[in-house]
Amino acid sequence: MSDIYGYMGKILWVDLTKKELKEEKPDEEIYRKYLGGYGLGVYYIYSRLKPKCDPLGPDNIIGFCPGLMTGNAAPFTGRYMVCGKSPLTGKGPLEDGSKGTGGWGDANSGGYFSPAIKRAGYDAIFITGSSDKPVYLYIDDERKELIDADNIWGKNFKEADKILKEKHGKICKTAMIGVGGENQVLVSGIVNDDGRIAARSGLGAVLGAKKFKCICLKGKKRTVIKDKEKAKELSKSYNKQLRKKLNDKLIKIILKQASNFTGLMRTINIPLSIAGKITSIGTKLFPNFLREYGTTWFTDICLGLGDSPVKNFKGSIKDFPQKKSKNFTYDRIEEYKEKRYGCYSCPVQCGAILDGSQFGLAETHRPEYETIQAFGSLVMNEDLEVIIKVNEYLNMTGVDSISAGGIVAYTLECVENGLLKKEDFKCEEYPDGFLPTWEHSENILPLLKIIVNREGIGDVLANGVKEASKHIPNSEQFAINANGQELPLHDQRLMQGLGLSYLTDPTPGRHTAAGTEFMSMGPINAFVKGLDVSASKKPQKLAKNQARIAKFAQAFNAMGLCIFSAWCGHYPLFEFMDAFFGWTMDLDEFLEIGWRIQTLRQMFNAREGAIRHEVSKRAIGDPPLTEGPLKKVSLDLEEKAQLYYDSIGFTKTGIPKKDTLNRLNLKFCVKDLNDAIGRPEPLVNEYLESKD
Ligand code: SF4
Known about the structure:
By secondary structure, this protein is of the alpha+beta class. The chain has three domains: 11-218, Aldehyde Ferredoxin Oxidoreductase,  A, domain 1; 289-485, Aldehyde Ferredoxin Oxidoreductase Protein, subunit A, domain 2; 496-691, Aldehyde Ferredoxin Oxidoreductase Protein, subunit A, domain 3 (Orthogonal Bundle). It has 26 helices and 19 strands. Iron/sulfur cluster binds at residues 76, 78, 110, 290, 342-343, 346, 348-351, 562, 564.
């Protein structure tokens, strides 16, 4: 009889320097306190990482951490998280004149790699040290070993994946860096399933520096479930209600009207929360929209609302009206759809494979909302072909499309202002250079290529906009970022809760870190009874709700749940926990776990001197836009940030309080409080002065 239910009970440590693989068996208490995913990841990385280490050096640790529920076939539980110290965020001068060396980084991906980690027998795999030559990790039921990766180094995802499948068999699952990570492009991630990518925080560059190409898995192990029948019954009844399909024609009519409705919302200023309520009618519309069109269904709507930033955050819908994006609305992209697909155990299956032949490609993933707008309104491009090709290129080279879009927009503005010239863009393919401009979207792909290959000015741009702006004089105002991370395609000037989360979350500039309005756009409170959060413009309430949603989001992610499940109605979360693990848990305990994870992520940053408060002025409406739905909007997040910190038990400079650490059983962090560095006051003062 097993006494471990619902998870594997083992983690694997891979030391690349010593070429050593060691298993460890965490106590059940660790799982109960941190769950899985980056909860488990931050516990081990915080405990074992050498503080202030170089993120691109051998002391950094990268965790591949599937959600705790992954592997048990519960709906929507196919996510895994890559985590470690980010080379992109949390750098900069500190109060004492020294430099922060990088902050907490994590990234999240779906597909089938997450359950493959469980089937290999592990709840997490941690990579430490660094290799002197390219290697990959292979695990099946008989062996686990590091293998020479010379034959796949320099190859893009599909090429390398094919070679590995020829060698190890078709059923193996891989997650790997592309050429972007190999070249230590600081906005690179880890790719799996032909184009799913754990993109944010630049963790692909860390693996590239370690000369670690890939994890290739072919295990057949299974979790032992405490109450299999109950788990089966829960999944069956949840999936049944979610798979009820609405009529296709009705969906099309609703989406068409929704797009028109954004015009009305702008004209008579209807609050966003009303739009959210409409979308959440009976919680049936959202899964149906998603199933049919993936995240492309809201591209046009977000543009209409002012949610999609235009022209590097300086434009509005007047500069890029909805008719300009007519080539990449959901129904237009639909014309290329070959088949649907989705992640492990997902009842919605929101992905799609497109026929890329018209664009000179084979099969290719349908681009997601973020990529479409990053290479649409943000860079003023109207051409779908550019978006499809860019999407494929970034997926294959393993580069974050949100950050890449931000870098392209920054570069175009540098060119517009005469800071970069044609000769700066000389490269092997264009020996005389080329000139990327707002008007010439055909130059976007060549620009991305010089970034990924670190050619010419691409070598500077590959470090992200914040670092690049230190090398290109007078360009700082064009470098739109939060604490080093390029901003997502959801505008905080529309949703100030998002702004608060962009500013204060340990992984800055992340829409999935859960802002209150963002999460309240769907029926979040239906997910579990008693959650009770809502958007509010009142600072105190906003801060309180932000703290509550941040706690919820951490535990939710650590379970391996897909963010979209939060908007699909009631989820029998605690019933599943009982059935899988034999755990009796309620919302209070769940939120306390989330609070612990958030606090430990924040302590990581405090110890590294990486709690910053830097967000580009333009992105918070300084100066405000003069046209469009966000006209005259200017955010002052300072008071709200302090209220949020207070609500979650941190000091006003963002350091977790000793009482908070004690209450959350994080006593092992108390010794680090002496060295913890919060957000530097001078920067805040500078910001406030500039507002006067
Ligand atoms: S909704 Fe989409 S992203 Fe989420 S689990 Fe399903 S297929 Fe994956």
